[in-house]
Write a structure and sequence with these properties.
Blueprint (H helix, E strand, L loop, with lengths): L17 H12 L4 H18 L9 H12 L38 H12 L4 H23 L5 H11 L34 H18 L9
Protein backbone atom coordinates (compact mmCIF):
# COMPACT_ATOMS: atom_id res chain seq x y z
CA UNK A 1 0.00 0.00 0.00
CA UNK A 2 1.31 3.42 -0.93
CA UNK A 3 0.49 6.49 1.07
CA UNK A 4 -0.16 9.95 -0.32
CA UNK A 5 1.90 12.46 1.64
CA UNK A 6 1.83 16.22 1.25
CA UNK A 7 5.56 16.14 0.60
CA UNK A 8 4.94 14.11 -2.56
CA UNK A 9 2.09 16.27 -3.83
CA UNK A 10 2.33 19.34 -6.00
CA UNK A 11 2.99 22.55 -4.11
CA UNK A 12 -0.06 24.53 -3.07
CA UNK A 13 0.00 27.78 -5.02
CA UNK A 14 -2.56 29.62 -2.87
CA UNK A 15 -2.89 27.69 0.37
CA UNK A 16 -5.93 29.65 1.60
CA UNK A 17 -8.10 27.92 -1.02
CA UNK A 18 -6.89 24.40 -0.25
CA UNK A 19 -5.83 21.47 -2.37
CA UNK A 20 -9.33 20.55 -3.54
CA UNK A 21 -9.78 23.90 -5.30
CA UNK A 22 -6.36 23.53 -6.90
CA UNK A 23 -7.29 20.06 -8.14
CA UNK A 24 -10.56 21.42 -9.54
CA UNK A 25 -8.71 24.16 -11.41
CA UNK A 26 -6.27 21.59 -12.80
CA UNK A 27 -9.24 19.50 -13.97
CA UNK A 28 -10.83 22.53 -15.67
CA UNK A 29 -7.63 23.03 -17.66
CA UNK A 30 -8.06 19.52 -19.13
CA UNK A 31 -11.62 20.03 -20.37
CA UNK A 32 -11.80 19.99 -24.17
CA UNK A 33 -14.29 22.80 -24.85
CA UNK A 34 -14.31 26.38 -23.64
CA UNK A 35 -18.01 26.15 -22.86
CA UNK A 36 -17.33 23.43 -20.30
CA UNK A 37 -14.36 25.29 -18.90
CA UNK A 38 -16.40 28.48 -18.50
CA UNK A 39 -19.21 26.65 -16.72
CA UNK A 40 -16.90 24.85 -14.32
CA UNK A 41 -14.79 27.97 -13.73
CA UNK A 42 -17.86 29.92 -12.58
CA UNK A 43 -18.68 27.18 -10.06
CA UNK A 44 -15.11 27.28 -8.72
CA UNK A 45 -15.23 31.09 -8.48
CA UNK A 46 -18.38 30.84 -6.35
CA UNK A 47 -16.70 28.20 -4.17
CA UNK A 48 -13.59 30.36 -3.72
CA UNK A 49 -15.75 33.27 -2.59
CA UNK A 50 -17.56 30.98 -0.12
CA UNK A 51 -14.28 29.69 1.33
CA UNK A 52 -12.92 33.21 1.81
CA UNK A 53 -15.85 35.43 2.84
CA UNK A 54 -13.46 38.16 4.05
CA UNK A 55 -12.74 38.95 0.40
CA UNK A 56 -16.25 40.37 0.14
CA UNK A 57 -14.99 43.36 2.11
CA UNK A 58 -12.37 44.02 -0.57
CA UNK A 59 -13.31 46.42 -3.34
CA UNK A 60 -14.08 44.53 -6.55
CA UNK A 61 -13.61 41.15 -4.86
CA UNK A 62 -14.84 39.26 -7.95
CA UNK A 63 -11.90 40.66 -9.89
CA UNK A 64 -9.58 39.39 -7.15
CA UNK A 65 -11.15 35.90 -7.30
CA UNK A 66 -10.63 35.67 -11.06
CA UNK A 67 -7.02 36.77 -10.69
CA UNK A 68 -6.52 34.07 -8.07
CA UNK A 69 -8.09 31.51 -10.41
CA UNK A 70 -5.48 32.28 -13.06
CA UNK A 71 -2.70 32.20 -10.49
CA UNK A 72 -3.80 28.78 -9.19
CA UNK A 73 -3.80 27.45 -12.76
CA UNK A 74 -0.26 28.77 -13.24
CA UNK A 75 -1.81 31.08 -15.88
CA UNK A 76 -2.69 28.09 -18.07
CA UNK A 77 -6.48 28.14 -17.79
CA UNK A 78 -8.30 29.21 -20.97
CA UNK A 79 -11.67 30.69 -20.03
CA UNK A 80 -13.68 33.79 -20.84
CA UNK A 81 -12.67 36.09 -17.99
CA UNK A 82 -14.83 39.21 -17.37
CA UNK A 83 -11.67 41.09 -16.35
CA UNK A 84 -8.27 41.64 -17.94
CA UNK A 85 -6.31 38.41 -17.80
CA UNK A 86 -3.25 38.75 -15.54
CA UNK A 87 0.18 37.49 -16.54
CA UNK A 88 2.94 35.85 -14.53
CA UNK A 89 4.81 39.15 -14.48
CA UNK A 90 2.46 40.52 -11.83
CA UNK A 91 3.87 38.05 -9.30
CA UNK A 92 7.43 39.28 -9.78
CA UNK A 93 6.82 43.01 -9.65
CA UNK A 94 8.82 44.67 -6.87
CA UNK A 95 7.57 47.87 -5.25
CA UNK A 96 9.60 51.02 -5.61
CA UNK A 97 12.03 51.61 -2.79
CA UNK A 98 10.87 54.24 -0.34
CA UNK A 99 13.35 57.04 0.24
CA UNK A 100 14.78 56.88 3.74
CA UNK A 101 14.85 60.27 5.48
CA UNK A 102 18.39 61.60 5.78
CA UNK A 103 17.58 64.67 7.84
CA UNK A 104 19.41 65.06 11.11
CA UNK A 105 17.30 65.61 14.23
CA UNK A 106 19.07 67.85 16.71
CA UNK A 107 17.24 66.54 19.79
CA UNK A 108 15.87 63.07 19.11
CA UNK A 109 13.70 63.00 22.25
CA UNK A 110 11.73 65.96 20.85
CA UNK A 111 11.48 64.42 17.39
CA UNK A 112 11.11 65.89 13.94
CA UNK A 113 7.58 67.09 14.65
CA UNK A 114 8.81 69.75 17.07
CA UNK A 115 11.21 71.12 14.47
CA UNK A 116 8.38 71.34 11.93
CA UNK A 117 6.14 73.13 14.46
CA UNK A 118 8.90 75.58 15.30
CA UNK A 119 9.40 76.35 11.62
CA UNK A 120 5.68 77.06 11.23
CA UNK A 121 5.59 79.19 14.39
CA UNK A 122 8.44 81.33 13.12
CA UNK A 123 6.37 82.20 10.07
CA UNK A 124 3.37 83.46 12.09
CA UNK A 125 3.07 87.26 11.98
CA UNK A 126 0.33 87.84 14.58
CA UNK A 127 2.23 88.32 17.90
CA UNK A 128 -0.58 87.00 20.11
CA UNK A 129 -1.21 83.93 17.98
CA UNK A 130 2.52 83.34 17.72
CA UNK A 131 2.96 83.43 21.49
CA UNK A 132 0.16 80.92 21.99
CA UNK A 133 1.80 78.65 19.43
CA UNK A 134 5.16 78.96 21.18
CA UNK A 135 3.64 78.03 24.55
CA UNK A 136 1.90 75.00 23.03
CA UNK A 137 5.17 73.84 21.49
CA UNK A 138 6.96 74.26 24.82
CA UNK A 139 4.30 72.20 26.61
CA UNK A 140 4.64 69.47 24.00
CA UNK A 141 8.43 69.52 24.35
CA UNK A 142 8.13 69.08 28.10
CA UNK A 143 5.82 66.12 27.69
CA UNK A 144 8.15 64.53 25.11
CA UNK A 145 11.17 65.08 27.34
CA UNK A 146 9.55 63.31 30.29
CA UNK A 147 8.25 60.50 28.06
CA UNK A 148 11.67 59.55 26.73
CA UNK A 149 13.92 60.47 29.65
CA UNK A 150 11.67 59.18 32.46
CA UNK A 151 12.76 62.10 34.60
CA UNK A 152 11.50 65.54 35.56
CA UNK A 153 12.68 68.64 33.71
CA UNK A 154 12.66 72.31 34.61
CA UNK A 155 10.87 74.93 32.54
CA UNK A 156 14.19 76.72 32.09
CA UNK A 157 15.62 73.70 30.24
CA UNK A 158 12.65 73.58 27.86
CA UNK A 159 12.81 77.33 27.24
CA UNK A 160 16.55 77.11 26.54
CA UNK A 161 16.12 74.21 24.10
CA UNK A 162 13.26 76.01 22.35
CA UNK A 163 15.37 79.11 21.95
CA UNK A 164 18.23 77.06 20.53
CA UNK A 165 16.05 75.13 18.08
CA UNK A 166 14.46 78.35 16.79
CA UNK A 167 17.79 80.18 16.51
CA UNK A 168 16.68 82.63 19.20
CA UNK A 169 13.45 83.67 17.47
CA UNK A 170 10.93 81.94 19.74
CA UNK A 171 11.06 83.09 23.33
CA UNK A 172 8.37 82.59 25.96
CA UNK A 173 7.06 85.56 27.87
CA UNK A 174 8.18 86.09 31.44
CA UNK A 175 6.32 84.37 34.28
CA UNK A 176 4.88 81.68 32.01
CA UNK A 177 4.54 78.30 33.68
CA UNK A 178 4.42 75.22 31.49
CA UNK A 179 1.97 72.42 32.10
CA UNK A 180 2.89 70.03 34.87
CA UNK A 181 3.90 66.59 33.63
CA UNK A 182 3.90 63.78 36.18
CA UNK A 183 6.67 61.21 35.98
CA UNK A 184 5.39 57.64 36.19
CA UNK A 185 6.98 56.07 39.26
CA UNK A 186 6.32 52.72 41.00
CA UNK A 187 3.86 52.90 43.87
CA UNK A 188 5.42 52.98 47.36
CA UNK A 189 5.40 49.75 49.32
CA UNK A 190 2.88 51.09 51.83
CA UNK A 191 0.35 51.73 49.03
CA UNK A 192 0.57 48.24 47.54
CA UNK A 193 -1.81 45.43 48.48
CA UNK A 194 -0.63 43.45 51.51
CA UNK A 195 0.01 40.33 49.47
CA UNK A 196 2.26 42.34 47.10
CA UNK A 197 4.38 43.99 49.79
CA UNK A 198 7.86 42.75 50.54
CA UNK A 199 7.65 39.30 52.03
CA UNK A 200 3.88 39.17 51.56
CA UNK A 201 3.87 36.61 48.79
CA UNK A 202 6.48 34.47 50.53
CA UNK A 203 4.58 34.64 53.83
CA UNK A 204 1.38 33.53 52.09
CA UNK A 205 3.25 30.57 50.58
CA UNK A 206 4.71 29.66 53.98
CA UNK A 207 1.26 29.77 55.61
CA UNK A 208 -0.18 27.61 52.83
CA UNK A 209 2.62 25.04 53.17
CA UNK A 210 2.13 25.01 56.94
CA UNK A 211 -1.60 24.40 56.54
CA UNK A 212 -0.92 21.54 54.13
CA UNK A 213 1.48 19.90 56.61
CA UNK A 214 -1.00 20.26 59.46
CA UNK A 215 -3.72 18.69 57.33
CA UNK A 216 -1.51 15.72 56.49
CA UNK A 217 -0.75 15.11 60.19
CA UNK A 218 -4.39 15.00 61.25
CA UNK A 219 -5.88 11.51 61.80
CA UNK A 220 -8.13 10.40 59.01
CA UNK A 221 -11.83 9.95 59.76
CA UNK A 222 -12.49 6.28 59.05
CA UNK A 223 -16.09 6.40 60.23
CA UNK A 224 -15.44 3.98 63.13
CA UNK A 225 -16.49 4.71 66.69
CA UNK A 226 -14.28 3.86 69.62
Amino acid sequence: MTFDYNSTRNKLILAEYGRNVQNMVAYICTLPTKEERNRHAQVVIDLMGFLNPHLRDVADFKHKLWDHLHIISDFKIDVDCPYPVPTSDVLNVKPDALPYPQQRIRYKHYGKTVEVLIKQARAIEDPQRKQLMVQSIANFMKMAYVTWNKDSVTDETIISDLKELSNGELILEDNVNLNKVDVARPAPTSMRPKNMQKGGIQNNKNRQNSNNRNSSNRPKNTGKRY
